[in-house]
Design goal:
Mean pLDDT: 86
Order of helices and strands: HHEHEHEHEHEH
Helix content: 25-40%
Radius of gyration: 16 Å
Largest sheet: 5 strands, parallel
Distance between the termini: 49 Å
Strand order of the largest sheet: 2-3-4-1-5
Amino acid sequence: MKINTSDIVNKIEGNRVSINYFLNNLNLTHDGNIWMINGQKGVGKSLLAKLIAANLLKIPYKENNIDKIFHQDLVILSKSNDKKLISVEEIRDLKRLFIKTSYSGSYRVAIIDSINELNLYGHNALLKTIEEPPKGSFIFIINHQNSYVPATIKSRCKFLKLQKLTDIEALKVIEKMNFPIEKED
C-alpha cells in the first residue's frame, strides 16, 4: 500500500504536520487498521477519512463531490437527517464488509461518522466488529470528543488528534465552500 500523502495533505486546511505523520504511518502498516480521528467538529476529520478511502480504493476525487463517493469495498455510516443515531443494524451490517473478499482485490474501508452518534448497543456492536480486524481493512472512527466512548473501543484503536483550525485556515475552508465573505476594512 502506498498512500499519496502530498495529494491528501494539499487538499486539507490545517493540521498538515499531524496528517502527514499519520499518513506516513499508514504507509508503513499492513495489518488491520482501526483509527479514531479525534477533534472538534469542522476540522476536517471526515474529509480526511474520505480522502484516504478514495486514495486506497483508487476512487476519482472530485472537489465538490467527496461526500458522494461510492465503491463496493467502502461503507460510510453516518446519521441520517431523520434519525437521532446511527442504527445498531447498520453497525452490525458493517461486519459483512469485512468477512467478504475485497471486490477490487485491494482494501476494505469503513468510515463511522461519528461514534458520538451511537448508543450503548451501537458501541457493543462496533466492539464486535473491531475485535479482530482482517488484513487489508481500515476502519476510521470519527470522534467529536463530546460524548462517552467506552474504554474497550478505545483500547482497540490507534489515534489521530486534530487541533482546532486557526482563523486563517477556517477562512480558507469557507472560501473553498464558495460562501461569500465580507472582509473588514
